[in-house]
Every structure is written in C-alpha cells, then in structure tokens.
Amino acid sequence: MNKEKIELTVAVFFCQQLDPDQDGNRRVIEKELGPRIKFFPLPCSGRIEPLHFLRAFESGADLVFLITCPEKACRYQQGNVRAGKRIAYAQKLIEEIGLDPERLKLIMASPPLPKRIDLLTRDLLAEAPIKGHSLLGRL
Amino acid sequence: MITAERKPLDEIIAMISPYKKVLVAGCGSCVAECVAGGEKEVGLLASALRMDARMTTRELETREITLERQCVYEFIDQLTGLIDQYDAVLSLACGAGVQAVAEVFPNIPILPALNTSFLGQTKEAGLWLENCRGCGDCRLHLFADICPVTRCAKQIFNGPCGGSQEGQCEVNPDTPCAWDLIITRLEERGQLDLLEEVYAPADWSKKQGAGPRKIIREDQQN
Questions:
Q1: Between B83 and B124, the higher pLDDT residue
Q2: Confidence band (pLDDT; 50, 70, 90) for B222?
Q3: Closest partner residue to A97 among B9, B40, B57, by Cβ?
C-alpha cells in the first residue's frame, strides 16, 4: 500500500449486508491502521444521513467512503439509491465550505455478495486518489 | 405549512462573521417538515460553519438547539438564560419565527439562515408545492378545494383559460392545470353547477395595502 495513502485518516461507512463476518473482518484492518481508520457499519446504506459525513470530516477524516450493496441488490429495495442521493447532497455541502467533494466517495460493491469488508477497504485505499490531508485534518 | 430553503452558505458565513459565539437555533415545526430548519439541518449547518471557521482560522463557537416553535412565546422562552451567553443567534426558522425571537430578545441579533418561501403542502417525500397564497378571501368551497389564485398561473376565477393541454398548464407544462383539476373534481362530486356562477375578482384589500395583517380572537386571549 502506498505510504501517503495509509497515513490519511479514513472513515468507512458500509452496509452490513455486504459482509456477514464484518465484525471480525474489519478488525484485521483496524489493528493494522489503528486510529487512522474508522468503520461505521450500517444496517442498510439507506440509513445514512449527510450529517454523518460532516461529522466524520469535522472529526478529522481526510477521506470518507460509503460502501453500498450492488445496484438492485439492496435488501430493502431502495437503500443504496437513497444513499446515493444523500451522498450527492453532502458532496455539495462540503464543496460549499471548500473541501474537495472527491474526498467523499460512494462505492457500490460489485456482485456477487458477500464481500469481505477488509478486502474491499484495501482495494479502496490502494485505488484512492492521493489527496493529502484535508485542511481540517491538518489543523 | 410555511416552507423555506437554506440560504447559500457564503451568505450565512458573511452574516455571522462579526460574531464568535453563535447559537444555532432550529424550529421543529413547518421548516422541519420541509427539511430546512429542523434538528438535523441545525446539526448540518453548525457542523459546516465550524469546519469553515477552522479552515479559515476564524474563531467560532456554536451551540445547537431546536425549539418546537420559534413563533410562540412559550417555546421561545426556552432561550432565556441561554441566549445571553452568545453574541448572536442564527435562526433556522421562517421569517415569522426570526422576528418573534427578536421581539423577545431585542438586544441580540437574530440572523436568518433561511429564505422563507410559501404556504404549501408536502406532496411527497422531498416535494413541496405552493397551494395557498394567504389572500384573506378564501373561496376554496366554490372550486372543489383547489385554489385558482395560487395554483392557476393566470390566477383566474372564471376558468379555464383554454390553453391547457392534456391537463397540463400552458404556462408551465410541468404543472397540472388547476382548472382541469377543479372541473374533474367538481364533476366527480356532482357539483359542476357551481361553475354557472360568474365570480367577482378577489378582494385583495384583505391582503394588501393595509400593512401587516393580524388575527384577533378574544376568546383565546388572557
């Protein structure tokens, strides 16, 4: 993994339906990265609110991800669709205060399920565009 | 209910810029229903303002509170003892709420974070439609409970204008023709004869020209 990317503080919101063993799997990467990564399991990605993202940035996250189930695979039908709309709203908000909206990313997992959340996260961190710390993270 | 939308963040930031301690106050009634000024929106705005202040190295302390209503003294009174600790209040209420709070606490600036829009209904999740103009001369009973003054682009009492197409307004094709709706509903109710009448223009003197309106109910007064 790229050193610069590892040093970023990352918040990962994700739908628990993606990984039935998420509780154990995410601990693998939590142990590795320590306080630089925080996972927030959700019963469904549709539970997310824009305020959750803002609080994550305010707490010093440089990158925030929301990982949802694949298209048309939401257990509650519309959860990932709603999550997409809310992330778009939150992106506009953070842009208004001068944060790059690319720091907040929606990741729709590809089928089939289940996925391992630790492996999904590793892929994300490897592929994440290098942005450096957000100004909030530096202050 | 009264609908409103949040002002652009730049405008709000400019308004609060002279102040270091700001109480961000929401209203749990109409503006909460239209997702502009309720508890969640207070949290979002306060968080955004704090982040902006940190990024511009400006000093800002906020506290969040949401009153059930900002237009009624009994609820505004919850700010007593708290408001004095702040330089200003950023109010996420409608214009009536902002003014009501300012009247109770005249020495503290109450800054409006919302632009108050119209009287409307929640048509569906995330969609609010204007359906009352508060004209002071309600005639809904004559028009199958559909207001031609508000919902017809031409505001005509003796419609239809003849320009609608397939039930949509010719002025704004995204909007259903109010007169199409009126006639359809009157027909369903068997009340088409109401349209035999030629209706006089609205009495706008009840709305305009005499300054702010008031409603007095002595039976409700102390």
A1: B83
A2: confident
A3: B9
Instruction: Read off φ and ψ for residue B201, nearest 5 degrees.
Output: -60, 160
Specify whether the CB–CB gap between A63 and A131 falls below 8 A.
Answer: yes
At A104-126, the pLDDT tens digits run 999 999 888 898 999 999 988 88
Contact residues, chain B, for A97 at CB < 8 Å: 9, 48, 51-52, 55
Contacting B residues, span 189-208, partner chain A, CB-CB under 8 Å = none
Numbered residues of chain A with Cβ closer than 8 Å to any chain B Cβ: 49-51, 54-55, 57-58, 93-94, 96-99, 135-136, 139
Q: Are A108 and A118 in contact (CB under 8 A)?
A: no
Gap between the Cα atoms of B137 and B124, Å rounded: 28
Tally Cβ neighbours within 10 Å of residue A79: 22
> For A139, which of B8, B44, B54 is closest by C-beta distance?
B54
Higher pLDDT, B204 or A80: A80
CA dihedral A67, A72, A77, A82 (to 10 degrees): 50
CB atoms A96 and B9 under 8 Å: yes
Q: Is B154 helix (H, G, I), strand (E, B) or coil?
A: coil
Indicate the pLDDT class of residue B210, thresholds 50, 70 and 90.
Answer: low
Q: φ, ψ for residue B198 (rounded to 5)?
A: -100, 120
* Domain extent listing, chain B: 2-118, 133-201
What chain A holds in terms of domains, given with CATH numbers, is 3-129 (3.40.50)
Sheet holding B88-92, edge to edge: B61-67, B21-27, B88-92, B110-112
Residue A5's pLDDT is 45
pLDDT at B179 > cutoff 70: yes
CATH of domain B2-118: 3.40.50.11860
Tell if the pTM clears 0.90, that is, is over it. no
